[in-house]
Amino acid sequence: MTDSRQQAIDYARAHRERFLEGFLDFLRIPSVSTDPAYRADLERCADWVVAELRRLGFSNARAYPTGGSPVVYGEWLEAGPDRPTVLVYAHYDVQPVDPLDEWVTPPFEPSIRDGRLYARGVIDDKCGVWVNLKAFEAMLAAEGRLPVNVKVFFEGEEEIGSPSMEPFIREHHDLLRADFMLVSDGGSRPDDPTIMYAARGIIEAEVTVTGPARDLHSGLYGGVVHNPLHVVGRIIGALHDDSGRVTVPGFYDNVRPLPPEELSMLASYEPDFVEMARKDTGLQAFWAEPLGSFSVRATALPTLDVNGIWGGYQGPGSKTVIPARGGFKVTMRLVADQDPADVQQKFVDYVRSFATPTVSIDVQTGPLGWPVTMMFDGPQVEAIQRAYEATWGKRARLIRAGGSVPIMGMFQRELGMPLTSLGYGTGEGVHAPNEYMLLDYFERGIATAIHFFHNLVA
Predict the structure, then answer these.
(1) How far from the centroid of its chain's Cα atoms is residue 457's Cα?
(2) Are strands 194-199 and 149-155 parallel, antiparallel or unpaired?
(3) How does DSSP classify residue 244?
(4) Which three-class secondary structure state does DSSP give residue 73?
(5) Which CATH number is 177's domain given?
(6) Is the pLDDT of residue 406 over 90?
(7) Beta bridge partners of 216
């Protein structure tokens, strides 16, 4: 191990408490991107990170305005033209905290209990911002320089699909150009390091079925006025067949089949994947088995899920009405070679086909997120593997992500940039009450990052 690498790790260890206190301050900022009421907090959070970049000596550190939340950018380009340039990505926005009454301690008042740090955003994804910043600080303190050139791109819209990011990327090609992009979103389970090499795309939509001009008495109009909720139920029931296959015409047209070696790799993970799912869900049996193995269904096939249903009376007791309107929300996860715009239109056309002279159907769609295929091997992935060997004592498993990080597909499509991932969120409760990070992995994450950046040139 080089002296500068060990000095950086020793510096991070010696300043662990200060690093942690800074992380707590970062977590106290309620940077919720889904609610316009938090707009000022998002801007304050961006400014806070910019101030940290400037303190570390990054050039051109600023919060770039967008149509939504600011992009935090900064660069350290003094390693020289013979060294690679890494674009480091993470996001500083967080999910809402609901249901608030299920939090043991307030979500924006970080709490340490039993070796766990509880707060909203602690593993999704403020750790991705903070661990990288502290790795940079430690390396700069140890040697006065970084081993590679670094550009940082921290966004504040990931949790709403990054709607302002694609125009920003298109307008700033030169600013963002790099040899590859490091995605620091997500993480690993304890003692089970992982490297994400693929993620699914995403489509969001909301369907509204409208019938009468107002709610009606079911005793007067039941049986003669078409109930919008009956149509809602009919549409939802028609979205899948009995095997779990999505029935939207053309939904699977462009799905890329997995090569045999990847199917074999996924099969080797199957027992652990199923056991993890049983623990997380409390279920012993899972759906849509005819479509493929659990790991294939969860990561390598497209999905369509109803996320919420609304309409009619929801209070205690009964209320004899035919509601004027009803609806539901859906998300679709897409895989390689599926075009989100194409699949979105197929969904819209299918749902609208259920309209009749007695009801109208409206479909509102949200931002589109492209699926992404990242580096499976090569020197950058090997640099991560060697970093895990040094800090976790083992190499990482390569995994497909069932979720979506829309910004990755944008960078890949707009800049042709190769990507790999190194996430630091080791804990549980992503998007749920009582989100937490295991504190033992806070310092370990910084050391892993230090090893990775040094491994790129060693």
Answers:
(1) 29
(2) unpaired
(3) S
(4) strand
(5) 3.40.630.10
(6) no
(7) 322
Based on its alpha-carbon atoms, the radius of gyration of the chain, rounded to whole angstroms, reads 24
At 2 the pLDDT is 65
pTM here? 0.85
Of the pLDDT bands very low, low, confident and very high (cuts 50, 70, 90), residue 31 is very high
Distance CA 1, CA 209 (A): 64
Do residue 38 and residue 135 come from a single domain? yes
Q: What are the Cα distances from residue 320, in Å, to 160, 233, 311?
A: 37, 18, 13
One domain, residues 310 and 410? no
Bridge partner residues of 326 (DSSP): 209, 311
Q: Which of 369, 403, 419 is the last residue of a domain?
A: 369
pLDDT band at 161 (very low <50, low <70, confident <90, very high): confident
Count of CB atoms situated within 10 Å of the CB of 197:
20
Helix (H, G, I), strand (E, B) or coil at 273: helix
| Residue 50, in any domain of the structure | yes
Please identify, among 319, 352, 369, the residue that sits at the C-terminal boundary of a domain: 369
What ranges make up the beta strands (E) of 139-255? 149-155, 180-183, 194-199, 201-210, 216-217
Residue 403 reports pLDDT greater than 90: no
**What b-and-e string marks burial along 274-295, b requiring 16 or more CB atoms within 10 Å of the CB?**
beebeeeeeeeeeebeeebbbb
pLDDT digit string (tens) for 46-83? Answer: 999 999 999 999 999 999 999 999 999 999 999 999 99
Q: Over the stretch 366-382, which tens digit does the pLDDT of each residue have? A: 888 899 999 999 999 99
| Same domain, residue pair 87 and 161 | yes
Please tell me the distance from the alpha carbon of residue 308 to that of residue 285, in angstroms, as a whole number.
23
